[in-house]
Amino acid sequence: MGSMISNQHSAKLFVASLPFDRRLYRQDIACSVAHVRMLARQGIITDKEAELIVMGLGAIREELDKGTFPFRPEMEDIHMAIEARLTERLGPVAGKLHTGRSRNDLVATDTRLYVKDAATQTVTAIHDLQSALLDVAQANLDVAIPGYTHLQRAQPVLFAHHMLAYFEMLHRDCARFRAAGAEADVMPLGSGALAGVTYPLDREFLAQELGFSRISDNSLDAVSDRDFLVSYLAAAATCMMHLSRLSEELVLWSSAEFAFISLGEEYTTGSSIMPQKRNPDMAELARGKTGRVYGHLMGLLATMKGLPLAYNRDMQEDKEGVFDTVDTLQATLGVFSGMVRSIRVNREATARAAADSMLLATDVADYLVGKGLPFRQAHGVVAQVVRHAQSQGKALNELSVEELQRFSTLFAPDVTTITLEAALAARRGHGGTAPRRVREALAEARKRLEACRG
Amino acid sequence: MGSMISNQHSAKLFVASLPFDRRLYRQDIACSVAHVRMLARQGIITDKEAELIVMGLGAIREELDKGTFPFRPEMEDIHMAIEARLTERLGPVAGKLHTGRSRNDLVATDTRLYVKDAATQTVTAIHDLQSALLDVAQANLDVAIPGYTHLQRAQPVLFAHHMLAYFEMLHRDCARFRAAGAEADVMPLGSGALAGVTYPLDREFLAQELGFSRISDNSLDAVSDRDFLVSYLAAAATCMMHLSRLSEELVLWSSAEFAFISLGEEYTTGSSIMPQKRNPDMAELARGKTGRVYGHLMGLLATMKGLPLAYNRDMQEDKEGVFDTVDTLQATLGVFSGMVRSIRVNREATARAAADSMLLATDVADYLVGKGLPFRQAHGVVAQVVRHAQSQGKALNELSVEELQRFSTLFAPDVTTITLEAALAARRGHGGTAPRRVREALAEARKRLEACRG
Amino acid sequence: MGSMISNQHSAKLFVASLPFDRRLYRQDIACSVAHVRMLARQGIITDKEAELIVMGLGAIREELDKGTFPFRPEMEDIHMAIEARLTERLGPVAGKLHTGRSRNDLVATDTRLYVKDAATQTVTAIHDLQSALLDVAQANLDVAIPGYTHLQRAQPVLFAHHMLAYFEMLHRDCARFRAAGAEADVMPLGSGALAGVTYPLDREFLAQELGFSRISDNSLDAVSDRDFLVSYLAAAATCMMHLSRLSEELVLWSSAEFAFISLGEEYTTGSSIMPQKRNPDMAELARGKTGRVYGHLMGLLATMKGLPLAYNRDMQEDKEGVFDTVDTLQATLGVFSGMVRSIRVNREATARAAADSMLLATDVADYLVGKGLPFRQAHGVVAQVVRHAQSQGKALNELSVEELQRFSTLFAPDVTTITLEAALAARRGHGGTAPRRVREALAEARKRLEACRG
Amino acid sequence: MGSMISNQHSAKLFVASLPFDRRLYRQDIACSVAHVRMLARQGIITDKEAELIVMGLGAIREELDKGTFPFRPEMEDIHMAIEARLTERLGPVAGKLHTGRSRNDLVATDTRLYVKDAATQTVTAIHDLQSALLDVAQANLDVAIPGYTHLQRAQPVLFAHHMLAYFEMLHRDCARFRAAGAEADVMPLGSGALAGVTYPLDREFLAQELGFSRISDNSLDAVSDRDFLVSYLAAAATCMMHLSRLSEELVLWSSAEFAFISLGEEYTTGSSIMPQKRNPDMAELARGKTGRVYGHLMGLLATMKGLPLAYNRDMQEDKEGVFDTVDTLQATLGVFSGMVRSIRVNREATARAAADSMLLATDVADYLVGKGLPFRQAHGVVAQVVRHAQSQGKALNELSVEELQRFSTLFAPDVTTITLEAALAARRGHGGTAPRRVREALAEARKRLEACRG
């Protein structure tokens, strides 16, 4: 039926980065404005020239903001596009803009400004999701569910305790994004193409103008360092890993078999063929997008492997994966904040599941330990009791004291004090699922979140 | 300086695939046309209805071809967009289009059509590059260069022999892309959402109409199988690995230190700051893009891991990485075909390098073997000779027979027959670098390429 | 508490490959034996010398088989270890073994022999698992379960149909491992270090002796090609992806919530603390090991990226990941064969789940289509019916015809013919889940498996 | 020739972690000793029991240290092996060891102790390499080399400046390993299997005994968190990325074409066939091992994706990749420290290369800027001058002032002040390559290293 794919690429397009680096125009212009001001302060260009160029750049920024900037196919990247436009507007004086700098240090600076900002925004989006987790935990403080290991029912936990586990993961994520932002917070301008520049630039002034905390210490390193991007991507991969775990649980809990929760209608979609379906598509997509972010991390690591100093054009490939990661994270975190808030717990189903007496088996063993049996032996006794109950089709708490005593004479009538409520309450150590403890942890988490949000 | 990044995503956009799956519109309409014709043949809809729908789809395809199709933000994917447009044009009869099919089997079929076509195009692009390699080999049949292992000069080889090594790699790549295309060549339509459909569809007719060789054997598998995408990506990763190796060599050979070649001016770029530079940017970018393709492979594998049957929304993430890989490969292969043809060998530099007498050390050892010394001992003798020559600052062929005889009495005046030309000619076994052999290999390669292009 | 980790590595150990390449000793000795025989046939060494060396190698192989070979730390790799041992036994004549070959072509040949063999074994292990899937399908031919998309109940399917989906995946895996084996089936010996050799070797004879189908065509490529390893790893990653999906389902189905199956006791383990647990550890581990295999694929691709021709020492890193992958696959496939056979379906639970009337919603829509309503409208009607039933807390099949007619006058008393059995039977097209069709597919699968096993 | 691979795995071995987690025995025993002491302090067991168990554990640790511990195939993991051995020695009282803990919190604690220690050791190894870089920089302070971008000669730099670029990369690596160590520095003990424990444990005491800074805040998170391993692996991947770049340069510089350095003989190896070769195998291997570490990172991320809370057996796969990464890093860093110190700069070759007048082209443009020409125009003039020189086969500094004036009347006799020395000296801004600046940077680096080493 003929070819359905057309080759949309030419050699010219192959090297062009404009289609994606135009996203950096605000950063690029900010760098140029600061650079020009500094050049004037240092007497490298005149104040008049600086004023002209700064005004020209301001006008170009407006064009870009409004979408009226005349992009042309022959422009290779955003820096050249802006300089070319400046030349159209100002004539030869525009040629002074590039004095004492290079695309190598400029693009590194643009990208660092971008990542600093992205890290801040990601942290804000995480805070929103953390806040949503605390809200849904608070609203369901009385709900117990089975805790699982190996997806087998293990011991009862509070639903809120489970939500707080994700709060902790996201708390660590914040720290990693902040660290990535801090790694980006070093200014390369003044490194030139690779060796430094022959002009008496004031790098500290530049850093201050652009909001950087410090300047780079080695020009070769400054133009070829992409560690801060790897660190952002690694933080993003870890964060998506966490979201993929939460996604998995939302999908499980939304199934007919678990039925612990329902998600808000706007977070599920219908089927093109099965009218009864409410699919947790957002959670699934988030889980799926984890692969995409992992891939971007792997891609950048592979790209950077074995490159000699200093700049190599391979490094132009550093941006698209990072941009896509920032977008993916922002979108996923944003959707999760709403989706988590939309969770409605099906208390009938959770109560039924939490009432499974097998969840109390550990507590029965601990009961025997309390009567003096070493834990390992107690564990063995309860294993026999469990097998007996299963063979009789009985719940653990349906066994009589007499039946129990067949397995150990340590069992006494007080064994009936082992209940769901008692099991929860007994795990009262720091980090445990006892209701009192979870309420404390929730309050503590709110405080930590406030402090973090500053 | 305020936030420079804006959050462009909403929950609605989060699930939408239209921004990228619109690329599949030709495939999607082809599927619908075939499906509707089949429905009429089977009496499931009337011929009249079929005619109407087919005409409507034709008109929509024209709109899409011309860019006049009214895309609307509320459209989730290309299938729904087309069906909605069809409903606007035809009214309720359009609702018959989706009889006996599901988005699950439809999107799988669209994607398979795409990959079949992409594999064919990739193979064609590889053939072009293979042809370029043969041409540049042919044009430089008389050029010898040092062969390297560990980037140390090892033994002399013909430049053409080196080019033919890449021919072989690409030859294997073709086979892998063909295999990926063959994997894609199985039609899922008729699998419904997951279980098959309740209508008496003629799947064989559908396959024939759409150019598929066979139909899928299990409906659950058919809607959840993405192996053919993994196989395409794995073939692509391997092909990019090869291109990254060639890139590395083009970069090395273009350096001042090697200076073996120059690339056509359109395949190099200048520097924003250093006026003397001619940078091999295309080769570097191709090397860098290898990471991107690796990342897409890893991303899809991660996404598919641990998904239960059958379709899960995670799988919507299968497309963007594949589309980007197809584009990247087409662009890279296209650029390489031209770039390879633009290679001009700097014969002065290659001749100087190939004349390095250290390249003949193995031949000296083989000479001693010819005189009866076991190879391992001969190797030892020559190692001593080499150290002696180096300490004297002499080339191997500047040592006199007397000097050589200090290391082994087997050396005789005929040792002077060991020359670059003799060394090349001696490697005359199949696959060796002897000029006669390389000419044969070149002719053979042309024949294989012709046969392949069929 | 002091350092708990000790640095076990020295510079010497850093380059040594003996700790892992000793696994290749059988292949290495086979190559040497064939090489020596060939050298004698070609008159490069005498028959007497050949006989001595072959006998020596035989004795060394025995030492290695028995574990009495004296490995010494100063030995760098298995080839050198064997040659050194041969020298101890035979004296200088052992030095003739390495005539006309190099470690570069030798190690490539050893590795190819290994992968050829590994691919065959992997295919055999896959066949065993396929056979187990057919057996468990056969034994449970009467079991229906809900089919899922998005982990939501969608339409009923036969359990056997579900098992056959995995049969199909594994069938494709076999083809990929065979292709990888075929890629490995090319003999590099005679390529020397990189350029061919100066001796009149009979490469075809060597290939025949070693069981290779053909010889390599370009010496540079032959010593630097690792595509066959990438292909094996990509096939392995895809196969593990399939096993991870089956693992996920076994874990889900073993949960208290699904309870569709129980796994044989030898395929579950207990808990160190919770006496009631039977954890599906093997399935979980298999799912986890998927990451390991993905990592090996990514590792090799990264290692090979951007390497100039011909051999580079980086390539020594090609082996450990492949060995570990072969072991992981063999172990995982072996465990799965037993585990799948140990599946006991809990028919009470599956029957209860399959009886969920929501699984029939698509069939109700198809019923309306049969009465003349376009599918899209029918879908809309049934969506309303479903919402009504849910709001009433009724199953779909608990709605009276009168209730249904409120939503469409097309409903008639024959709507009661829509049952689980009817829904299954109706999906009778090729690939569908109708019992008759599944029985045919099962028989067909057995034939395909037989044919494959040859 | 029969199968050359034997299946060494059984179902039993499949789940066993003892073959690799035995490496954690010191950590495991330390945890047990602290746990038992705490149990006694809290009155959960008697002082007498605690004393017995602690003594027993001490004896077992000695057995393990000496290699006399009786490992048995039926032992699943190191924890069980030690407990079983303790039971052999002490009888039932050993069963009290596991009171109030689970393998889930124990293995998490063991692993965290390991990573804390590994991070410290990695940092120490990095410091050694940094110190070596400073030494080789110091010893070659007078050496200039061409600085490269795109592997094209760009501008002159000091060799020491180049070495300091790697110092910076490693400095960032240290910070990342420290952060990973700090992430590991949180104690999970007391989290039980997933929900906390029913015993009044003193978690703060445990943390203090084991040297942890703080205790975990959520039991579900504590047993299922592997972020600290991802962070260690991400830091390792980044560090290996840096080492791969240095490797690439060492390989390039060791080539006949560059010939800038020679590596110590112990860091190169010979060829099995080419007697003249001195291959930089260690550098190549380090570059190759980068892929292995990338793979381990990707493997763990893939393994952890989509796992529901809390512990799943998949997570047993977290260790081998980390252990191998720690070993790989330690070995590679150790080898690099020696290898870098063994660098001998070939000053004749570096001087010849640095004298390439094309390296001064930027300075000629800057000269014209100094005469009033905007930079962009100056760049254009010099590009013409360069082309003229190349067409004449002249070096830039071989052009007469008259020749230069044909391209711009701004050229004057003082153009001859543009020399290698002047070009170096002119880049005197912070981070630049001016000799004075580099000496300062070197001194500063020494201070930072001292401070870091504490």
Write the layout of secondary structure elements.
The structure is a homotetramer of 454-residue chains.
Chain A: H1 11-15, H2 18-21, H3 25-41, H4 47-66, H5 78-90, H6 103-139, E1 144-149, E2 152-158, H7 159-184, E3 186-187, H8 203-210, E4 214-215, H9 219-224, H10 227-254, E5 261-262, H11 281-304, H12 319-341, E6 344-345, H13 347-354, H14 361-370, H15 375-392, H16 401-405, H17 420-426, H18 435-453
- Specify which chain pair forms the largest interface: A-D, 110 and 110 residues
Question: Quaternary status of these chains?
Answer: homotetramer
Residue share in helix of chain A: 55-70%
What spatial order of strands do you see in the largest sheet of chain A? 1-2
Number of helices of chain A: 18
Tally of domains of chain A: 3
Account of the protein in words:
The structure is a homotetramer of 454-residue chains. With 454 residues, chain A is mostly helical. The first copy, chain A, has helices spanning 11-15, 18-21, 25-41, 47-66, 78-90, 103-139, 159-184, 203-210, 219-224, 227-254, 281-304, 319-341, 347-354, 361-370, 375-392, 401-405, 420-426, 435-453, and strands spanning 144-149, 152-158, 186-187, 214-215, 261-262, 344-345. A two-stranded antiparallel ribbon of chain A has the order 1-2. The longest helix of chain A is centred in the first third of the chain and has 37 residues, at 103-139. The interface between A and D is large, with 110 and 110 residues.
